[in-house]
Amino acid sequence: MKKSVVVVLLLFVLNQTATSQGNLPFWKEVQVLKQKDSLSFPAPGQILFIGSSSFTMWKDAQVYFPFHKILNRAFGGSTLLDMIRYRYEVVFPYQPKQIVLYCGENDFAASDTVTVPMVMERFTTFYTLMRARYPKVPFLYVSMKPSPSRVLLLPKYQEANKLIAAFLKKDKMAAYADVYSKMVHADGSPMEHIFLKDRLHMNADGYAIWKEVLERFLIR
What we know:
This protein is globular. It is α/β, with parallel strands linked by helices and about 220 residues long. It has helices at about 5-15, 25-40, 55, 60-65, 80-85, 85-90, 105-110, 115-135, 155-170, 205-215; strands spanning about 45-50, 70, 100, 140, 175.
């Protein structure tokens, strides 16, 4: 099946997943972000953080990157499907200097039936749509992290991370930030001490690792 046909089919499925806007996942969270924009629309030239809760909960990201202007528009436990669904609300309205995405982990966690090829199709669909809107804006993908609470999913995360990294090499305006390898011990097991009690979200030590990795990729 041609890629263009797959994209159209995926978008059609997304449009059929709810009978009204209010039933869409994370609808209320996205409306809060839109309300913030309506009160004070973000200035152009910022680095746009989008994706799921690992960015949503990084409320002091600006403190970690004092030499960059960060615009955080991540929401909830979003998936790549949600990134596609809400692209007009949380991705396309802005004039970013760079786009940074953390997403994909929740796609696998949503169902055992979700495969690596499925997630790759979702990622490439989002990427195609994003590139159509922002053909020359630098893009950075942050690898899926090794959450201890999702240890059974780590092989899928690793495989998807490798495929996404290889895909992004084809675009000179894109980069891949490997945080996964910095968050595991020598035996490959996740570092428990850098996570909160839920063993899913990170504490300050975890975000310190992300700062060290991402700093090398963020545009001044």
